Every structure is written in C-alpha cells, then in structure tokens.
Amino acid sequence: MGLTMKLLALNLSRVCTWKTVGYGAVALAILSSSAPSAYGKFGFRHKKYESPITKDTEQPDKILFDKAINDLEHGRYELARIQLQTLINTYDSSEFLAKAKLAVGDSWYREGGMRGFSQAEAEYKDYILFYPTMEESAEAQKKICGIHYQQMDKADRDTNQALRAEQECKQFKTQFPNSKFIPEVDQMLRNTQEVLADSEMTTGMFYMKRGSYNAGSNRLGGVADQYPLYSKADEALWFDGQALNKLGPNFRRQESNALVRIVRDYPLSKYADGAKARLKALEVTVPEPDQAAAARMKYELDHRERPGLMSRTFSFMRRGPDTWTAAKTGTPQMKQPVKNLPPLTPSVGPNAGFTGDVTIAPNTDPNALDKNPDARQPQPAPAK
After folding, report:
1. According to the model, what pLDDT value does residue 312 have?
2. What is the mean pLDDT of the segment spanning 88-117?
3. CA–CA separation, 114 vs 8, rounded Å?
4. pTM for this one?
5. Is 244 within 8 Å of 251 (Cβ atoms)?
6. Which value, in Å, is the radius of gyration of the alpha carbons in the chain?
7. Confidence grade of residue 28 (pLDDT, cut at 50, 70, 90)
C-alpha cells in the first residue's frame, strides 16, 4: 500500500508540474506576442542578417565586416557598430563600405526603442543620400516607413507617427516607383490612411453628438475626399449630409452632393437606400451606381478577415491600432492632406457674399461693427 501511494503521489506531482509549465508557456507566448518589436509579432531578435557578404577572402576589411555581422546577428549591437565604424573610417575605398553603412542602420533598427529607431532613421537617410541608386536604398526607405508605422498609436490618440508613416511611404512610392517592395509599402500606406481617416471620423462624430454641426461637417466632409479607400467613407458622407441638413436650407446643395457620392461611389453601403430616399425628397436625380466601385466594395467585404479571439481579447494591451478593416486593394491617396473650411465660414469669390482680398489690419474705430456691412451677407452689386 505504501509503494502504491508513493507512485500515485509521484504521478500527481508530474501532472501538476506539466500543467504549471504549460500555463507558464501560454503566458510567455501571450506576453511575447504583445511586446513591441522590429522583427515581427514574436519579437525574435537573433535572426540571421538579411544580406551578409559571403565572399571568401582574407582581406582585413572583410574580416571586420564578418565579425560585425556575427555580433549583429547575436544581439551585440554596440560591439557590431564599433567594428563597422572602424571599417568605414579605416578602409574608405573598401568594397564593403556601402554594406557597412547600411549595417550600422540595421543595428540600431534591430535594437529598437525610441533611441534605436531615431538613430536608425538618421543612418538610413544618410545611406540613401550617399547611395541613391543602390538597390538597398529602397529597402532603407521602406524601413524608415516601417519605423513610424510600428510606433503608431490608436486612432483616438496622437496621430503624429501615423502622419510620419504616411509621409515616408509616399516618399518611397515617389522615389522608388519600380521597387519590388511597392506592394508591401502600398499596404502599409492603406493601413496608415485607415488610421488617419478613423481619427478624423472620431473627431467629427464627437462634434455631431454635441450638436456642433458646423464643426462636425468640417471634419466629416473631407474624409471621403482625402481617404476614399477608408472602410467608413460612406458613413462619413452620410453623417456629413445629416450635419448639413441641420445647418438649414442654404446647404441643400452640399447635402445632396454628399448623398450622391454614397449612391454612386459606395453602392453596397447600408446607407445607400436612405441616401436615395433623401435625394428624392430633395428632388435631386438619383445617380446610377459605379460598377467598378461596387466590384471593389464586394471584394473588400468578401476578403475581410476579422481578428481571432485572442487578438480581440488582448487588443487593449497593444499600443498600435487595429487595421483589419483597411482596404486590401486600390491605389492609396497620394495627394497632400487639405483641411476643409467649416460650412458657415464666409466664402470668397465672384458669386459669394464677399469679394476681394482677405487682409488683416488693426482696427482703431470702436464703432466699426455698427457701421460696416456684415461680410457674411450678400452685398449689393457695384453701380455701373
């Protein structure tokens, strides 16, 4: 009986041990997957260097480069940079000079963190400046885009990193239009613009809920213009129309323009039927839907993959935004952002209530507001 009890106790201890180890492994996997890293979602730092030189020679510059790359692959970044800088300063005509300068940037990129990413960006920009025609320059610019892309915050927080990522990705497409990295950069740009558009949408809806329809229309009106691939562009147009409707009959034309775009450019939208009904009430011709736009919307809806349960459960632990709703096809917007004027801002032009140049000057007349005409009201035509 005593031997049997001992064996039973031993088996129970093994079960508990394996359960403990199993739970610990699961917890470690969750923590590692949520940790920010420049090398993928699992944070593996000691991966093999992307493009080491394998020429079999005994040149001293080659020996220095090989030692530096070995240190780089094993996470000894400071030691790798010392050897790379020694190579650069000592062998200014070395055939490995360009690779060494790029590896310095890669060492900072792999090290990560605010300091590492900042130094990596500076090194990559220097590399592109000195070697603009080399194939690695396109990869360096892609990594600059990725540096800011990885540091993006959620849409309801600071958008500075998202704006920088958009700028650097546009720079890549302008400078390296034939690069093999274009598809990857296009998707990063679509994801980034989804975040920026969502930020504008969130701000516009904040104003709408508080009854500030002028400010709400100002934010919502430009979302579809600046980010036509945004997954909620149709919703932004719908609520822009709602805001313009609240501002009064003087804005019926702008309201109808927003509704026309829903029916024509987003025909599969859940707001399309409501837009058609409102256009009929406004006595505006309902346009035919754009077939290419309908095909694009159908493709996006059919190929949209919702995040898994674990990803949704631990999303609050991630700093970065969710981009699963971003478009997978279509050309990202390359125009510079343009801020719209609020609808109630006085317009300037030959058909507006005010004509002439807008200037700023100090006013010394305390009765000017009582005597001068209101610039927001139509002015009488000058006598001929």
Report:
1. 65
2. 93
3. 54
4. 0.74
5. yes
6. 29
7. very low
pLDDT of the residue at 48:
65
CA dist 126 and 115 (Å) reads 17
SS3 assignment, position 354: strand
Q: Where are the alpha helices (DSSP H) in the chain?
A: 2-34, 60-73, 77-90, 97-111, 113-130, 135-150, 160-175, 182-209, 213-221, 223-226, 233-246, 252-265, 272-281, 291-302, 309-313, 368-371
Residue that wins the pLDDT comparison between 234 and 343? 234
- Write the Ramachandran bin of 192: left for phi over 0, alpha for psi from -120 to 50, otherwise beta: alpha
Q: What CA–CA distance (Å, rounded) separates 164 from 158?
A: 12
| Alpha carbons 120 and 133: distance in angstroms, whole number | 20
Is the pLDDT score of 42 beyond 50? Answer: no
CA angle 196/32/162 to nearest 5° reads: 15
Query: Which residue is listed with tokens 């039927």?
Result: 273
Q: Which residue has the tokens 């920009």?
A: 125
Mark residue 75 as left, alpha or beta (left: phi above 0; alpha: psi -120 to 50; beta: remaining). left
CA–CA–CA angle 121, 127, 129 (5° rounding)? 105
Q: Which of 101, 99, 119, 122 is nearest to 110 (CA)?
A: 119
**How many angstroms separate the CA atoms of 231 and 326, rounded?**
6
**Nearest alpha-carbon partner for 96 in 59, 133, 71, 50:** 59
Q: What is the pLDDT of residue 138?
A: 95
Task: Return contacts of 238-242, CB within 8 angstroms, 24+ apart.
Answer: 238/262, 238/269, 238/271, 238/274, 238/275, 239/204, 239/205, 239/208, 240/204, 240/216, 241/275, 241/278, 242/208
Convert the pLDDT of each residue in 186-231 to its tens digit: 999 999 999 999 999 999 999 999 999 999 999 998 898 899 999 9
CA 308 to chain CA mean position, Å:
22
Question: What is the pLDDT at residue 152?
Answer: 93
pLDDT value at 13 more than 50 = no
- pLDDT of 19 over the 80 cut: no
Q: Which of 309, 315, 266, 256 is nearest to 286 (CA)?
A: 256
8-state DSSP, 375: T
